[in-house]
Write a structure and sequence with these properties.
The complex is a heterotrimer of chains A (296), B (981) and C (249). Chain A has 296 residues and is α+β, with helices and mostly antiparallel strands. Chain A is built from five helices and 14 strands. Chain A is globular. Chain C has a single domain, classed as 2-Layer Sandwich (Ribosomal Protein S5, domain 2), CATH 3.30.230. Chain C is built from four helices and nine strands; from the N terminus they run ββββαβαββαββα. Classes of the chains: A alpha+beta (296), B alpha+beta (981), C alpha+beta (249). Chain B: Pfam families: OB_Dis3, PIN_4, RNB, Rrp44_CSD1, Rrp44_S1.
Chain lengths: 296, 981, 249
């Protein structure tokens, strides 16, 4: 991950701030930094979103493909994550420099989305056993300002919300072969249900305390973090996956606290995100919105 | 301003892609009207304020906006020079382009005609007229809306320029904008939006000054047929067809109607070598020759065999309703065919047409059938092409169109109409008139033959044309050489000349000098484009349709005697054995010493008293040519024969006076040899210089199955034809000689010619080297260089050659493989059509020649058919069918009973036997030729047997036979004529 | 040389409604990111590119041996940037090629004598590709370099040009025009000095047209230069307004 050079004194200062529940930028331990989210800005992707969380900048594009369902799950569509750490974020990512971090992110997303309760894979199936959608969630990390997991998962969920799949009707031919006919109306498309789509919340342990949304500097002070995947079902938040990152260790009780904290923050964050997305959608209507993108 | 267009598309691999394109909206697109005071006018084709078209619907000046359906259906009305000040929206243009490329081409031609005041308005990119697609709107609805928006915009836009005080004071009427649409839905919406709107037919009928224009309206229904019962099964929708094709329940192919039997046709389907037979009116289901159709294969038990019956539709009248009786008649015929088929066990896959994938309707030549009722506007049109059904049209000028050749196009063919509906397009002229008939031939063979346009002529050199000193400086001066040309008599477009002289080292210098047409036709200009489109000069009897304007073809380019002309020379140094020692190409100035005919040249060579330079040069050439020819023959070049005839045409009436077979002299062959040599030399050169884009000509080896009829025919005569290589074929052809039948060898060669493939132009980069082979000439590489006046391919070759030797500038298109390939494609097509047109013209003149004549001629049986003999008359190079009656001949049982003459066909040795007379292939016969004019559109030469004499069948050499010809029955003409004997 | 489709309608408009000499809409912004020393975003129609510059800093590894400035570029294309998904963002031949071309063109513009033994990293990320990817990347890189305060001889800008079937040159060709089979000429130029820093051509056309096509691309470069210059001034006024720089510009 992006390297931040901190002196011991700086570290101590951050640590003390966390202990006081008054972080360097004035936040409490449960506070997020301001976020900006825009959807639909990559016009040639089926869905897209850009999330800027302070200095962390994530661009997600969703591309679609027609594929054959996996033999074991003939009624499921497919989902694939791809993370690219752009060298724009830091020269360390040049060439294959960011691939380890990318792999880590892909894995945690994959875990979080793995359960059919977390993501409705059935909705991506066109003809069981024969044809399904395969969604590529391509994540591009443009700038690293800490808390990549949360930012990536938020952007991915927003991009999925934004994704429009053209309406496809299948016709059955002889010998069980099917053919797909796409609707010629660009407005005639299906959306993806995102109610259950999980978010990742990084709970970072600094000293003896846990906090969310660590900045890059705070991450440098932390030895261990807990990434909690939170999925909504029937208006209740569930864990859909979790894993620890970093070299340190934590006590069992701390860990439970972390999970607890992650779950409640995740629940809140998710409801807020969905609310905002829906509001925005209603405001814009079916027409193409004006795109701001990077020109703000 | 800018917006995005989004759409999804399926890729070949089955993936679905989202495509996004930018779409800019502009504010600098002019409305094209000279009334407007606001727009920047960026085009010269302006809509004008003058308006002289009187419409009873819109009694003020107005512009027209056309809906797509009006352009598609009423193109014939639009082509008439009546409607002016028409706005064509790009929305409409794109839809038309998508739906019919031929109509797109035609509407573009109208738009380009400045006098017509058609203006293309780019509404799709205008900021005020762009229509973004709404949710829940089909593509069609959006386009309709875009058309309405543009109409409305135009109307308001023009109004805003016509409200000024000065305009009002001028007292002129306000110009409005009218939408023409045949779509009821669009019309209703337009009315609701306060747009002036009318249907095409309402509008055309409202034009008081042009009552005849209504004839050209396309009709969807005829009043009296609305209630009629459906006569045909319904067609499947396109979607059902596509599904059926995918599921392999249906097959797709192009439909070919039978020339002989109007109730029969064939559909060429990929998997079936012989195609699929379609029989009966319901199975044919309104398909017209050329259409791409979807068919359903019948179960094998219902398969049938081709009827081999000539069945022509009887005359019907426009107001007749289809009678039950006639349908009965068809049933009988079908039953007979099927019954016969069972016996024959020659059944082929049979199917029925269930839908039309794409119509290939075009314009048809023909005549109006005389109507029984006076003063009716409904008529039946009989096309000249027998493969095309009759067409029902509506016209008010039947009286004038009677006895004229006219052109009609099909509009549609509803289920409840026996015939397709169409409308009158134009008249070609009186029947039987030489000009009209030539016009028909040219039209039917798609030969571009209109006058050269002003623009094309503007690129001709200005007269008087002189050779400048710079020209001399750039060219090799060969004016002192004894160059002469040898051509058929009366030839005015001389494109080749020859010379030969002895060099000091004892070798001979031989030069072929070709008219330097590419000097005059510069690449890319209108003249060049026109020549490229025409591709070749077309020769009809007594008429020549030039590829380049006459000033070039018969004057500046033509290498006439005694005049200085530019040439492209190919000069060889040869030893006495005609081995090429050196060759060079250069542009030159020549002065032909004499333009000779083949005959004159022959006389000069043979007359040993002549000892001038020309005679010497010709004798050298003749000797070398013989060596060259022998060498070529030894390589396996084929000597093929096809009967060629010449007409002596009356210069006044253009009617043929005399028919003769073209004579071949040594000199013909002499010129030919050197042209071949030049072509081959040039081909080698340009192929080496331009490995990717040289224009070459190849003649593929025919597949061995092509030779089957030839091998069979020869085998009956006891000869074996080897078709392994060109050489073995050539040798075996040489061996086919019969002492008692001097014409036998020629006939075998005629048959061989028919086994051959068509030679074609191609671009060197598109094929492998081995495929360049020219089979007929046994040359590994070949091209056309020697006739640039009459072939565009030669001009292309000239340019390549000139560029390679630095004699002319290069240009962008020269090396462009793709566009050259397209050109070659067109040339191949034009060539084929020119050949067919030439043959059709010979046929036409043969008929004219025999009009009112009867002649007995010596002929040979070319081959024996089941119910006829194919007879060749060497004197006229004429071939025709002598129908024999066999016991399977049709359904006319009554007449058969009277007849006692029975021919038996033997499958084994292909003979026809009647009593003790046996007809073999190649047997000599004497036939009587006469013209059957019972069908004015299809005059036909009738062959009747004179010798050997068969009682009851052969012509009695008495005098009463002439009477038969005078009044032949209307149908089944040929056979009935014979039967009456 | 002419392609399969006619790129220019008879009414003189291109497929997307532009006239032959018109550029696509250009929008750009400097200083989009905090972390790099310089960054810029550039949009030319639907081609959208982000560029970031790090440096000048001490050269790393082997590269320190030379005395010259090292210009290190990376060209990368987001996997969702094309209509058919790309499998990887970089490392393919095309991006290697573009990387080299970027280095080439930028070397011509950077005042290298000012940065001995230093390295300048230029990273380009194409977010959406709709034709002229290299040209837009270079233009964005120029802006990012300026944002990073690196001395340039002059704006180095690139523009593409093609030739319609009717032999009319077209400026700034879009993806659809690229794939329609026409020729494509890319020129990277120092427009004021009228120097060409880099030139690339694909497909072929007759040499007679080369002159006009290059001139068309050069004219495009000049126009883009003016747009970039205006954007730089705008940016300076914006960020410098606190320091009262606005009056200087």
């Amino acid at each position: 991950m992006a390297y931040v050079a901190l002196s011991e004194a700086e570290k101590t200062f951050i640590l003390h701030g966390v202990e006081e529940d008054y972080r360097c930028d004035g936040r409490s331990r449960r506070d997020y930094r301001p976020m900006e989210l825009e959807t639909g800005l990559v016009s040639n992707a089926s869905g897209s979103a850009r999330l800027r969380l302070a200095n962390t900048d994530i661009l997600v594009g969703v591309k679609t493909e027609i594929d054959v369902p996996h033999q074991l799950t003939p009624e499921f569509g497919k989902l694939e994550f791809f993370v690219d750490c752009s060298a724009n974020a830091t020269p360390e990512f040049e060439g294959r420099g960011g691939s380890d971090l990318a792999q880590e992110l892909i894995l945690s997303l994959k875990n979080a989305y793995e359960s059919p309760f977390a993501f409705d894979y059935r909705s991506l199936c066109l003809i069981p056993g024969q044809q399904c959608w395969k969604l590529y969630i391509d994540i591009l990390i443009l700038e690293c300002g800490g808390n990549l997991y949360d930012a990536v998962s938020l952007a991915a969920k927003a991009a999925l919300f934004n994704t429009k799949l053209p309406r496809v009707t299948a016709t059955l031919l002889d010998a069980g072969i099917t053919d797909l006919i796409i609707s010629d109306n660009p407005y005639d498309c299906t959306r993806i249900g995102i109610e259950t789509v999980p978010l990742l919340v990084t709970v970072c342990k600094i000293g003896d305390f846990c906090l969310v949304d660590p900045s890059a500097e705070e991450e440098a002070c932390s030895t261990v973090s807990m990434v909690v995947a939170v999925s909504q079902r029937n208006n209740e938040a569930f864990l859909s996956g979790t894993h620890m990152t970093g070299g340190g260790s934590m006590h069992r009780d701390t860990m439970l606290n972390c999970l607890q904290l992650g779950l409640s923050i995740g629940d809140y964050l998710d409801k807020l995100l969905v609310k905002m997305l829906k509001q925005e959608q209603e405001r814009v209507g079916p027409k193409r919105p004006k795109i701001v993108g990077f020109l703000k | 301003m800018q917006t995005l267009r989004e759409f999804t598309r399926k890729t070949k691999r089955g993936n679905i892609l989202k495509i996004v394109r930018e779409h800019y909206l502009r504010d600098d697109i002019g409305c094209g009207s000279d009334i407007c005071q606001h727009c920047f006018q960026n085009d010269v084709y302006a809509l004008t304020a003058d308006h002289d078209l009187q419409s009873s619907l819109f009694k003020y000046p107005h512009y027209l906006v056309l809906d797509t359906n009006v352009v598609l259906d009423q193109i014939d009305v639009l082509e008439e020079d009546v409607l002016r000040n028409v706005i064509i929206l790009t929305t409409v243009l794109n839809e038309v382009k998508h739906k019919s490329s031929s109509i797109y081409k035609r509407i573009n031609e109208i738009i380009h005609d400045r006098r017509r005041n058609f203006y293309v308005f780019v509404n799709e990119h205008h900021k005020d007229t762009y229509a973004d697609r709404e949710p829940d709107e089909t593509a069609n609805d959006r386009n309709d809306r875009a058309i309405r928006i543009a109409t409305k915009w135009y109307d308001n836009h023009l109004k805003s320029s016509q409200v000024s005080k000065s305009f009002q004071r001028s007292g002129r009427q306000v110009t409005r904008v009218v939408l023409l649409t045949d779509d009821a839905g669009n019309r209703a919406k337009a009315e609701a939006e306060d747009i002036l709107v009318a249907t095409a037919s309402e509008y055309v009928k409202s034009l008081s000054d042009h009552p005849l224009l209504a004839d050209k309206l396309s009709h969807k229904t005829f009043a009296n047929e609305k209630q009629a019962l459906p006569q045909y099964p319904p067609h499947l929708s396109l979607r059902e067809i596509l599904e059926g094709l995918k599921q392999k329940k249906l097959l797709q192919g192009s439909f070919q109607a039978s020339r002989e039997n109007y109730l029969e046709g064939n559909v060429n389907v990929e998997q079936y070598e012989k195609g699929i037979l379609i029989q009966g009116r319901e199975s044919l289901n309104r398909a017209v020759d050329g259409d791409i159709v979807a068919i359903e294969l019948l179960p094998q038990s219902e398969w049938s065999a081709p009827s081999e019956i000539v069945l022509e539709e009887k005359n019907v009248y426009a107001d007749d309703l289809p009678s039950e009786e006639r349908t009965e008649e068809e049933k009988v015929m079908l039953q007979q065919v099927r019954a016969a088929a069972v016996v024959d066990a020659e059944r082929t896959p049979t199917g029925r047409i269930v839908g039309i994938v794409r119509r290939k309707w075009r314009q048809y030549c023909g005549i109006l059938q005389p109507s029984l009722i006076e003063d009716t506007s409904r008529h039946i049109f009989v096309p000249a092409d027998r493969k095309i059904p009759r067409i029902r049209i509506e016209t008010r000028q039947a009286a004038t169109l009677q006895n004229q050749r006219i052109i009609v196009t099909i509009d549609n063919w509803p289920r409840n109409s026996r015939y397709p509906h169409g409308h009158f397009v134009r008249s070609l002229g009186p029947l039987g008139d030489m000009n009209t008939e030539n016009e028909v031939i040219l039209l039917e063979h798609d030969v571009p033959h209109c006058k050269f346009s002003e623009e094309v002529l503007s690129f001709l050199p200005k007269m008087p044309w002189t050779i400048t000193p710079e020209d001399y400086a750039k060219r090799v001066d060969l004016r002192d050489l004894y160059i002469c040309s040898v051509d058929p008599p009366g030839c005015t477009d001389i494109d080749d000349a020859l010379h030969c002289r002895e060099l000091e080292n004892g070798n001979l210098e031989v030069g072929v000098h070709i008219a330097d047409v590419s000097h005059f036709i510069r690449p890319g200009n209108a003249l060049d484009k026109e020549a490229a489109a025409r591709g070749t000069t077309v020769y009809l009897v007594g008429k020549r349709i030039d590829m380049v304007p006459e000033l070039l073809s018969s004057n500046l380019c033509s290498l006439v005697g005694g005049v200085e002309r530019f040439a492209f020379s190919c000069v060889w140094e040869m030893d006495k054995e005609a081995n090429i020692i050196k060759k060079r190409f250069h542009k030159s100035v020549i002065k032909s010493k004499r333009a000779m005919t083949y005959e004159e040249a022959q006389v000069l060579i043979d007359d040993s008293t002549q000892d001038n330079e020309i005679a010497k040069s010709l004798r050298h050439l003749n000797r070398l040519a013989k060596i060259l020819k022998k060498r070529r023959m030894d390589n396996g070049a084929l000597v093929l024969a096809s009967p060629e005839i010449r007409f002596q045409v009356d210069s006044e009436t253009h009617e043929p006076l005399e028919v003769e077979v073209k004579q071949l002299r040594d000199t013909n062959s002499m010129v030919e040899e050197f042209m071949l040599l030049a072509n081959i030399s040039v081909a080698e050169h340009i192929a080496a210089e331009f490995s990717e884009c040289a224009v070459l000509r190849r003649h593929p080896k025919p597949p061995t199955t092509n030779f089957d009829p030839l091998i069979k025919a020869a085998r009956y005569q006891g000869f074996e034809i080897e078709t392994e290589t060109g050489l073995s074929l050539s040798h075996s052809l040489d061996k086919c000689v019969k002492a008692d039948n001097p014409y036998f060898n020629t006939m075998i060669r005629i048959l061989t010619t028919r086994c051959m493939m068509q030679a074609v132009y191609f671009i060197s980069g598109s094929l492998q080297k081995e495929e360049f082979f020219h089979y007929g000439l046994a040359a590994p590489i070949y091209t056309h260089f020697t006739s640039p006046i009459r072939r565009y391919s030669d001009i292309m070759v000239h340019r390549l050659l000139a560029a390679s030797i630095g004699a002319d500038s290069t240009y962008a298109q020269l090396l462009e493989r793709k566009s050259n390939e397209e050109l070659c494609h067109n040339l191949n097509y034009r060539h084929k059509m020119a050949q067919y047109a030439g043959r059709a013209s010979v046929g036409l003149n043969t008929h004219l020649f025999f009009r009112g004549k009867e002649e007995d001629e010596e002929g040979y049986v070319l081959f024996v058919r089941k119910n006829a003999l194919q007879v060749l008359i060497p004197k006229y190079g004429l071939e025709g069918t002598l129908y024999l009656k066999t016991d399977k001949d049709g359904k006319d049982g009554h007449e058969r009973a009277k007849s006692t003459v029975v021919f038996t066909f033997s499958e084994e040795d292909h003979t026809q036997r009647c009593g003790n007379v046996v007809f073999h292939s190649f047997d000599p016969v004497t036939v009587r030729l006469s013209l059957d004019s019972s069908n004015v559109q299809h005059e036909k030469l009738v062959f009747r047997l004179v010798k050997p004499y068969i009682k009851g069948f052969s012509v009695e050499t008495g005098s009463e036979s002439a009477a038969d010809v005078a009044a032949p029955p209307p149908t089944k003409k040929t056979k009935k004529n014979q039967k009456k004997k | 040389m002419a392609g399969r489709f006619e790129l220019l309608s008879e009414q003189g408009l291109r497929l997307d409604g532009r006239r032959p000499h018109e550029l696509r809409h250009i929008k750009c912004k400097m200083g989009v990111f905090e972390q790099p020393d310089g960054s810029a975003y550039m949009e030319q129609g639907n081609t959208k590119v982000l560029a970031a510059v790090y440096g000048p800093h001490q050269a790393k590894g082997k590269k320190t041996e030379t005395n010259d400035v090292i210009i290190n570029c990376q060209y990368s294309q987001a996997t969702f940037s094309t209509s058919e998904r790309k499998n990887r963002p970089r490392g393919d031949r095309k991006s290697q090629e573009f990387k080299m071309y970027l280095q080439q063109a930028l070397s011509a513009a950077i005042k290298s004598e000012l940065y001995p033994r230093s390295q300048i990293d230029v990273y380009v990320e194409v977010l959406q590709a709709d034709g002229a990817n290299y040209a837009v990347s270079l233009n964005a890189a120029t802006l990012a370099l300026i944002d990073a305060g690196i001395c340039l001889n002059e704006f180095v800008v690139a523009c593409t040009a093609s030739l319609s079937k009717s032999n009319i040159p077209l400026t700034d060709i879009s993806n659809i025009e690229e794939v329609s089979g026409g020729p494509k000429l890319t020129v990277a130029a120092l427009p004021t000095a009228e120097k060409i820093a880099f030139l690339e051509m694909s497909e072929r056309f007759h040499i007679d047209h080369l002159e006009t096509v290059i001139e068309t691309a050069m004219a495009g470069c000049r126009e883009i230069r003016d747009i970039l210059e205006a954007a730089v001034k705008e940016h300076l006024i914006h960020i410098g307004s606190a320091a009262d720089w606005g009056r200087v510009c």
